[in-house]
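Lab notes, practical 5.
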Amino acid sequence: MKYIGRRTRIAVILLATGFLSACEGFDIPEFRMPDLGFNTSAAPVIDRPLPDSRGVITYETYQVMIARTGDTVMTMAQRIGMSPDELARHNGLLIGYVPRVGEVLALPRNVGGSVVGSPSGWTPDLAITAIDNAAGGAIEVTQPSLGRPDEPLRHRVESGDSAYSIARLYNVSVTALASWNGLGPDLDVRIGQELIIPVPDTSRTTAAPVAPAATPIAAPTPTPPAPVAPVAPAPSSATGFMVPVDGTILRPYNQQAGRDKNDGIDYAAPAGSDVRVAADGVVALVSTSTGGLGTIILVRHANDILTIYGRVDKVTVAKGDAVRRGQVIGVVAAGDPATMHFEIRKGTDSVDPAPYMK
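Output from the prediction step:
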């Protein structure tokens, strides 16, 4: 069986990993903001195939099993005539483990069944086009690195992995990754767990037309940087979110497609400046980004709201910590210039932070 490692198969081409300083003011190069795994620009995916009467999905070279209400490792193993110890050991679980409804367990051997089919019209070429169109050309994909409906890619979780980093690695949304694998609301993954990578949906994709060779392509008109505006921390409020750092807005929130698209706000602030949590919550993730945001912190708040803090150094919190509004959770990392990236998300969708901080 073959597994896809974190540095193989898909080469992520980032147009930039930081800001450059010019002689006068800030020279902001073409920049593609990494998506932290939420991947709002990811291609849509097909639905996970339905399991058979035993709860088994049979792919070309491997099988998985979907947990039902009331299932345990023992009852799942009994349905397929397998030793509970064999099933548990293959998934790094105890025999008494109680999986979530919809959770996916990998099967150590074939237990029989019909291989799932592919949606009508699905082809690798169209899937590559769908990924390329959604990512705006920032992803280089080849057919051997692309999962198929009858043989999706798999990722074995390694130390330091998170659902967000894995989703970002394969350019799928974390929502799709969670749905296909039955992850819980905290999106936790465990070392050694096998995750199935969702397959791109090509039902609405057509091959991109090729422009005539003689047709000149005009260079994009440079967009001037956003004006620098002073920002001060918001006054205390029982419900409002506070500005997370003392600094100036370098790049505002902008959801229009193009080089200036930004899912949050980038603040210019001196390296070592305090980074404060915007509202009461619980730390959901502390991780190192591969997309130019350095160390990131995710905090989960009430009403399905997440705040994200990027380019943070000297982190003072860990996953699971309860944090209070205004609490210092780290400092702005060194950079040229030093910047801090901040996002507010409702579920997996980015929203403009400004109205939340009034």
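Observations recorded by the TA: Helices lie at 73-79, 84-90, 124-135, 163-169, 174-181. The CA atoms of residues 211 and 217 lie 9 Å apart.
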